[in-house]
DNA sequence: CCATATACCTGGCAGC
DNA sequence: TGCTGCCAGGTATATG
């Protein structure tokens, strides 16, 4: 479910409410992708200073470190005034003086990891190689071009790798490539300057628009308040195999790249 | 250094 | 209704 927009929408939906809260308890359920790294009781008594996002990770800053949260493929967060009874797939409750932050994650590819700081081991390892943030001024066209120049892999896979630019997941990679008229199979380094500029702007556009619309995944995305996205952002190509391209009516094609589904219009995306 | 395959885990759905 | 096989929004890790 979560690509950058969904993670950002989730962050926005509970950051201000949890900020300033004192942690009363941390209850972990079934194992997630990685262990927390410390005894949950270490968190008790800490104060939540705020919530940031880096790529698809949420960073819950406290006065003594940072709690890294990742939603994996199927995770979602809920922030509620009181602690409801936990369901089968609820694997973390962070109980605070201002509410309970709960992680719901059926597949358990998500993670909750404690790090003493952003520059200490767990955080450094997880965040250290991440690429540019697409929705900040740090996403400089020239740097993006330089990043792509080094890569012989197909552009779709370079986008997903997250070491050049973060936050573009499987849905938005296909969408951004459609918007910029680029074939997903083209080697990243072979894309012309003007095309890279188009892609750069398409990535910003598609992600920013999805954030402003409250998250736009195709399925049941809900923010931490339980509100759904508006789903106004209709996919141009993702999941539309065989359906007419919204621009030229040509049937949308499907292919597999790096064991992931890719969708594109063979006419609108020539190179 | 880079590119690609693999693993993790559960639920939903199409097809029989 | 039940079973089987396939698919799913991510990414660290191993392997070439």
State the CATH topology of the largest domain.
Answer: N-terminal domain of MutM-like DNA repair proteins
Q: Helix count?
A: 6
Series of H and E elements? HEEEEEEEEHHHHHEE
What characterizes the major β-sheet?
4 strands, antiparallel
Global mean pLDDT = 94
- Using DSSP, what is the number of strands? 10
- Category by helix and strand content: alpha+beta
List unreliable stretches of 5+ residues: none
Q: Give the CATH level 1 class of the largest domain.
A: Alpha Beta
Quaternary structure type: single chain
Round the Cα radius of gyration to an integer and report it: 19 Å
Count of domain modules: 2
In whole angstroms, how far apart are the ends?
A: 29 Å
- Order of the strands making up the biggest sheet: 1-6-7-5
Query: How helix-rich are the residues, as a percent range?
Result: 25-40%
- For the record, what is the CATH homologous superfamily label of the largest domain? MutM-like, N-terminal
Structure in words:
- The structure is a single chain.
- The chain is of the alpha+beta class and 271 residues long.
- The protein folds into two domains: 4-127, MutM-like, N-terminal (N-terminal domain of MutM-like DNA repair proteins), CATH 3.20.190; 141-264, Helicase, Ruva Protein, domain 3.
- It has six helices and ten strands.
- It has helices at 4-18, 121-127, 141-149, 155-161, 170-179, 193-212; strands spanning 23-28, 48-54, 57-62, 65-70, 76-80, 90-96, 99-104, 111-115, 253-257, 260-264.
- The strands form three sheets. A four-stranded antiparallel sheet has the order 1-6-7-5, covered by helices on one side. Strands 2-3-4-8 form a four-stranded antiparallel sheet, with helices on both faces.
- Strand 2 and strand 3 form a beta hairpin.
- It binds a DNA duplex (16 and 16 nucleotides) through residues 1-3, 6, 33-34, 56, 70-74, 89, 105-110, 125-126, 150-153, 157, 160-162, 169-172, 217-219, 221, 258-261.
